[in-house]
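Structure first, sequence second, as always.
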């Protein structure tokens, strides 16, 4: 059986084949997360208004497989934008998905761009 984490793989900007319209600017709160569904994936989207940057990652936390990252607390560590899981506060870089607590868990991240007020997330399929 496919593990829930198997469907989440980091997509780099160079690899994007599909730009999915996740919504418009007003659909996403400032400096917090929103959640969208793309095919069988739940994706957390973050509008870092204070940095004028957007990030997207898997919504499922790899620790206990809870669909919660979109409800986590955003912030930055050494200027790296991060998300802290609301359950047990494990913290991940939104740039490369690495765990900032030095543990093995990591998350998949996806490119985001905003074009004419629409928020687009990049996928490979
Ligand atoms: S479920 Fe996310 S840190 Fe435990």
């Amino acid at each position: 059986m496919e593990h829930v984490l198997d469907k989440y793989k980091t997509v780099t900007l160079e690899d994007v084949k599909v730009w999915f319209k996740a919504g418009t600017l007003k659909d996403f709160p400032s400096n917090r997360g929103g959640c969208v569904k793309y095919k069988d994936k739940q994706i957390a989207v973050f509008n870092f208004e204070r940095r004028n940057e957007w990030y997207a990652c898997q919504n499922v936390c790899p620790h206990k497989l809870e669909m919660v990252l979109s409800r986590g607390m955003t912030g930055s560590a050494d200027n790296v934008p991060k998300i802290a899981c609301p359950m047990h506060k494990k913290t991940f870089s939104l740039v490369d998905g690495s765990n900032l607590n030095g543990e093995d868990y990591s998350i998949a991240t996806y490119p985001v761009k905003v074009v004419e007020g629409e928020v687009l997330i990049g996928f490979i399929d």
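Margin note: The chain is about 0% helix and 40% strand.
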